[in-house]
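In the laboratory, one determines a bound structure by crystallizing the protein with its ligand and collecting diffraction data. In a computational setting the workflow is compressed into a single prediction: the sequence and the ligand go in, and a structural description comes out. We illustrate the idea with 6-O-phosphono-beta-D-glucopyranose.
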Amino acid sequence: MNKTGFIFDLDGVIVDTAKYHYLAWKNLADELGIEFTIEDNENFKGVSRRRCLEILLEMGGISVSKEQFEAWLVEKNEDYLQYILKMDENEILPDVKRILNYLKEQKIPMALGSASKNAIPILEKVSLLRYFDAIVDGNSVTKAKPDPEVFLIAAAKLGVDPLGCVVFEDAVAGIEAANSAKMLSIGIGDSEVLSESKFSFEDFTKIDIDFLNRLVLSLQERNNKG
Ligand code: BG6
Ligand code: MG
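The predicted complex, in structure-token form:
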């Protein structure tokens, strides 16, 4: 069994796709006459597509048939995919590649743990798929974050004890999921919002190699103690 593994959320950690999710939800909201702001979009971060639509319809006080609900899910996703098609490596968030390259050099196993069903095409668009030893996405989980399922499956796929895993997350639900999986959570974004994380950084430019090395050592000790 590997001693340590690193798990990355995708949206808001590796790439800034929140703006595209926002545009696609906004288009649907406009069509339905529901007011939807960038602040409302904050509540959609880390939340499954299905749950996002439920929240949007609750905001508009709209109840719909199952068929209509499914049709709007498809409509939103097709719209979102139009934005994704245009993505390239320039959309990788600052210094993500520096961290991925370092961990790869150290032969530390890495997994993706995302709620998105579009994770693989997005990683392909930004040429990062090859870094990951395991991909766990919205197609492979039955329970959404804050349930720890996504991260526990990722740890199992990497062959790492959950106690030896680090999780990078930008969403409150994701930090909660990592903490309940007994993994070491690192918030990427606003430290006040991500106050439940063990460590937090504004972005990856603030993470230095010394910190990563110390982290790996402390995880190995944590893992040894069980
Ligand atoms: C999460 C995003 O990673 O994936 C959410 O933070 C999004 O905003 C969710 O709703 C599902 O994504 P997708 O690509 O399957 O619609
Ligand atoms: Mg995210």
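DSSP finds nine helices and six strands in the chain. Keep in mind that any predicted model is a hypothesis to be tested, not a measurement.
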